[in-house]
Amino acid sequence: MTRLGALILLAAAFNSSAAQDPPPAGKPPAEEYEERCNKITTALADEHANVGAYLTSAQMHDWARIEYNNAIKQVPLHEKANKGLGYTVWNEEDKKWETDPSKIPQTGNRKKGEEADKVWTEYQKRTEQLGKKIGRLYFELGTWCVKNLAAEKDKSESAFRRAIQYDPLSKDARTKLGHQKQKDGGWLSPEEVKLRKEMKEGIAKAPKGSADASPSDFADKLGLKTKKQAAEHLVVESPHLDQKALETLVQHAEHAYAMFLKMFNQNSLFEGKRTLLILKDKGQHEKYVDTFGANWSSEQRKLSKECIGTGNERYQGEHPQAQLEDWVIHRVIMMCSEAMAGGERHWLHEGLAYHFTRQMHDSCMTHCTSLRGTGAGDGGKDYSDSTTWHILIREWLKSGKDPDIFKIFKCRTLAELKGGDPVKSWSLCEFLAVEWREKLIDFMQKLRAVKQEEDEKTFEAVFGWTLPDFDNRWKVYARAVFMDAK
């Protein structure tokens, strides 16, 4: 055999042997899944630290600290983030970052006015870019899970949900979750679509209650003869409304209560029955204030007389039946929100009340706040018509002059929640209810056990966001619904 022939036979034998050897074993899917999750976590920490570095360079140190801390929440020993916070010395023995006593970390936001506004706009832009990048990584993780962990559907769904939490505009992730694009903007999950349909259509099916001849707490003291219509949880009482009107209002009240329980996973929120009193005119209302507000301050009585109601009492005057229906929904939801979360958390109670009246009744006719003026310098327009709220929010997103998140969140006097504040409160609550309902439920339940001074800390513990984070995430959501919808 020639030397060339021997080489050919040797090569063939080698190739045959190599073809029979099994390929190197890949990583188990569960192990690769953990690695992919860890890579996303590291990428998220890097992105937050990079935003923090930008803010440091812009001398906005308080904002920078928010982003560095966001990075550390993901990767506690992240070098760039720790150094940004002033932990510049690595302790090899204890494996942790420590401060250098000779170096004082910079604090405070140094820029003010228009310069600060420009940095804030860029900050929001970078945060949105961060969301899109991380959202894409989670979508890719979800796609990988579909192929490699098909039996563990919860993992792919979790990844797709995380994708839209970071990037609400992610059409790919929302499609994977079966979300539906709405004609008026935004996306809704199948569960949310079903819930909203039930909120609107269920009124006609709600209990009408029955006539209640039991003694009235109000009639004798006001010198009036009233009718009461009572269902399981709510009673509507009035000296002038007929049976049909009372039945309709009871249906609105009972359905609002039932839908709140369903949305927030509650079995009940108050014992006994709550009465909603609807008087005929301002004169009856003023007599109510004088009679039942005897222990109020003169200032409180004066203000109450100038309003159309005092909580669970109001007068009709020239207002149509539709406004009474709106008011009944609004009051019931406020009672539910107050029972669940407690306190003077006006942004939450008012915001949720508006969410329900809009979904159930297509209105926001009744409110405890003034909607005159928007906080955007538009000359005092009145946005009581909720069909115009999208216009207002678009203007905020364009101008960057939306109401201050700190003022809204920390408002403790209802009179201070005015202008555009209630509108933003509604949109903030709708964002949480639609995109983060489980956490919203947890947050509201925890509020019952804390002082109102601890609300911000409680919010951050539940959601993992600071208030500026919350504001930025809301803006991304609002753009998806109101700006990029068409």
Number of separate strands: 9
CATH fold descriptor of the largest domain: Neutral Protease, domain 2
Q: Look at the helices and sheets and give the structural class.
A: alpha/beta
Write out the strand line-up for the largest beta sheet, numbering strands in chain order.
Answer: 5-6-7-8-9
Describe how the helices and strands are arranged:
Layout lengths: L2 H18 L8 H29 L3 H14 L4 H6 L4 E3 L4 E3 L14 H36 L4 H14 L4 H6 L3 E2 L5 E2 L1 H12 L8 E2 L7 H4 L4 E4 L3 E5 L4 H21 L10 E6 L2 H11 L5 H9 L6 E3 L5 H21 L4 H16 L27 H11 L5 H5 L11 H15 L1 H11 L7 H9 L3 H17 L3
Parallel strand pairs: 7-8, 8-9
Antiparallel strand pairs: 1-2, 3-4, 5-6, 6-7
Helix pairs in contact: 2-3, 2-5, 5-6, 8-14, 10-13, 13-14, 14-17, 15-20, 17-18, 18-19
Question: How would you describe the overall organization of this protein?
Answer:
The protein has two domains: 29-178, no CATH class; 197-280 and 316-483, Neutral Protease, domain 2 (Orthogonal Bundle), CATH 1.10.390. It has 20 helices and nine strands. The chain has helices at residues 3-20, 29-57, 61-74, 79-84, 113-148, 153-166, 171-176, 190-201, 219-222, 243-263, 282-292, 298-306, 321-341, 346-361, 389-399, 405-409, 421-435, 437-447, 455-463, 467-483; strands at 89-91, 96-98, 180-181, 187-188, 210-211, 227-230, 234-238, 274-279, 313-315. A hairpin with a 3-residue loop joins strand 6 (227-230) and strand 7. It is globular, with a radius of gyration of 29 Å. The termini are far apart.
